[in-house]
Write a structure and sequence with these properties.
The complex is a heterodimer of chains A (316) and B (270). Chain A is mainly alpha-helical. Chain A is built from 12 helices and 4 strands, in the order ααααβαββααααβααα. Chain A has helices spanning 2-27, 35-51, 56-79, 85-104, 119-128, 144-169, 171-181, 183-188, 193-219, 230-245, 250-273, 281-315; strands at residues 108-110, 134-137, 140-143, 221-223. With 270 residues, chain B is an alpha/beta fold. Chain B contains 9 helices and 10 strands. Classes of the chains: A mainly alpha (316), B alpha/beta (270).
């Protein structure tokens, strides 16, 4: 049960990353690898601020702003200086590696016995359970701290999902979605598509940094390496989500991204439990994303070929 | 209304691919007039339209709409004054988004985009009412992605979108050329109706001589980046398709003659 709760909590925290990547990868169709750097940026900045005694909420908010800035720079590199999107992301990600080391002053900062964004929820749950440090959930004894983290990440990601859903349906959000679809059309409607790209990347990386900030507080440390491969994990989550609920509306797409992230974390937890070497995790994820990207086209081709074979057979 | 003064544009200057697409083109369009631009391939007619729309900045010359100099403005800023329909029927709308979402974007062309829900009931009713006039049955499919429609349907909607907020100038860039004959006729008819109803000022590039004779009230003929013929008023009313073809022939013959004579002279004197 602890395993499941842990996977759910991390899944919910990382769903903010998936929501951020939904904006860049799905809405404006920008393959943004800044993500690998900005999630660490969020984590490292929050860790340092909390370690120096900042309020965890304020520290988390600062991480969001730092992510905004990082994403905006990637956007400017691409739109203003005409650098290819992948390269713009790689430049920013590489720069962020040094920046993150500068922020932390070393490669790892532990957060032990410091407050976090789920402190209040934990206190509330402790009061409810009458001061015990374990509580009964459907017959399982679960540490109150774990439940607190689960609840606060649940509330946070639901809240952000609702705000994002509303935002994407506004006049501004509608144009944002059109930017990835048809930039020429967006210009013809009087909107600077480059500005929309910069804004979207900023918002996207802001959410990613937010995810990193909360992740650092949950796992109790920030590490300069923690962002490696996060973008591919986000992609995997989005793909799973799309397979789960389709993309019939914005609400469904957002729901899918969150569910996909949770399911992906559960799958990882199960695979690790069954003895998958953690070192192989990123390879397995990469292969999975590869398959998910090529499978639809492959099935289509296969279907066409089968049809051909059949029509041949019928003709003869 | 629209005053174009001596604009020139050279693509790839100084290279072997240098193209003088526009050479000191001047043109004045009156408020409420409908002008067709015709010409052979590479004559600069689409380039002229793109210069007005802001796809590129001309090398020299000025473009004014109602006295405002716009030749240095970026494309998106000019969209405040200009509505456009493209040759590619897929270029004017966002394929993955619904009909209603596409139209809602056009309802605020060149205006601010507030953080309010874009597609709601009242707006949808207003959209359905106007889409009905296309007589394509699209008013019942407002929530379908626009990418599921045919080229003709999409072009008709793009036309509606471009004129939803009355533009100071409507630019039509061979907007029926990529459609099947039936859809092309339908879109041409809609174009005429909308332009007459809304009393729009329009500039249309076309390959179809018939369209140039039927729809507008003025015909401008371009060749090699210059305006070579300008038919209006009485002249335009009398002109028929064979006359236009004849004019084309004369221009092309004149040019052939020039080149062959030049070669002859070269052989004899150099």
């Amino acid at each position: 049960m602890n395993l499941v709760i842990g996977a759910f909590t991390i899944g919910l925290i990382l769903s903010l990353l998936s929501l951020g990547m939904l904006i860049s990868f799905k809405m404006i169709k920008f393959t943004d690898i800044t993500v690998d750097g900005s999630i660490t940026l969020g984590a490292s900045l929050t860790a340092v601020l909390i370690a120096t005694g900042w309020n965890p909420w304020l520290a988390t908010l600062m991480a969001f702003f730092a992510g905004l800035l990082a994403g905006a720079i990637t956007g400017v590199l691409h739109t203003k200086f005409k650098i290819q999107e992948i390269l713009a992301g790689i430049l920013m990600m590489t720069a962020l590696y040094s920046i993150n080391l500068r922020i932390m002053g070393r490669s790892n900062i532990p957060l032990l016995d410091t407050g976090s964004v789920s402190s209040q929820t934990e206190q509330l749950l402790t009061t409810i359970s009458g001061g015990a440090d374990k509580m009964n959930v459907f017959g399982w004894e679960v540490p109150v701290a774990d439940m607190g983290a689960l609840f606060s990440s649940l509330v946070l990601s639901l809240l952000l999902a609702i705000v994002l859903n509303y935002f994407l349906k506004t006049h501004f959000g509608t144009v944002l979605r059109a930017t990835g679809n048809n930039p020429q059309m967006v210009r013809a409607q009087g909107v600077n598509n480059n500005t929309m790209v910069v804004f979207s990347l900023a918002l996207s990386n802001g959410l990613v940094a937010l995810s990193g900030a909360i992740l650092a507080q949950y796992q109790g440390f920030a590490d300069v390496q923690m962002g490696i491969g996060m973008m591919v994990w986000g992609l995997a989550s989005i793909i799973i989500g799309e397979a789960l609920v389709g993309k019939s509306s914005i609400g469904m797409t957002i729901t899918g991204a969150i569910l996909g992230t949770i399911l992906f974390r559960l799958l990882i937890a199960i695979a690790l439990r069954w003895g998958l070497n953690p070192n192989d995790l990123k390879l397995v994820t990469a292969v999975f994303v590869f398959l998910a990207l090529v499978a639809p086209a492959m099935f289509k081709n296969l279907g066409k070929r089968l049809q051909k074979v059949r029509s041949h057979a019928n003709n003869q | 209304m629209l005053t174009i003064n001596n604009i020139s544009k050279t693509f790839f200057p100084g290279t072997i691919n240098e193209v003088k697409a526009l050479r000191k083109v001047s043109l004045q369009i009156k408020e409420g007039s409908f002008t067709a631009i015709i010409g052979t391939n590479g004559s600069g007619k689409s380039t002229l339209l793109n210069a007005i729309a802001g796809t590129f900045i001309p090398d020299e010359g000025s473009i004014k709409i109602d006295g405002t100099e716009i030749s240095r403005w970026p494309e998106y800023k000019r969209a405040r004054m200009i509505g456009r329909v493209f040759q590619n029927p897929f270029a004017g709308s966002a394929a993955d988004m619904t009909i209603a979402e596409n139209i809602v974007m056009a309802m605020r062309r060149g205006q601010s985009r507030p953080l309010k829900i874009a597609v709601h009931k009242n707006i949808k009713a207003a959209i359905a009412e106007k889409v009905q006039m296309l007589k394509m049955g699209l008013e019942d499919r407002l929530d379908n992605p626009i990418g599921t429609l045919s080229g003709g349907q999409r072009q008709a909607l793009t036309l509606l979108m471009a004129t939803w907020l009355k533009p100071k100038l409507l630019l039509l860039d061979e907007h029926t050329a990529a459609l099947d004959p039936k859809s092309a006729a339908k879109v041409a008819e809609l174009t005429k109706i909308i332009i007459e109803q809304e009393k729009l000022t329009a500039l249309m590039v076309t390959h179809s001589m018939q369209q140039a004779v039927d729809l507008p009230d003025r015909i401008v003929m371009m060749h090699r980046g210059q305006i070579v013929e300008d038919l209006r008023d009485e002249m335009k009313h009398r002109v028929r398709v064979p006359d236009l073809l004849e004019t084309f022939n004369i221009i092309q013959k004149r040019e052939l003659f020039d080149e062959s004579v030049a070669r002859l002279m070269k052989e004899q004197y150099i």
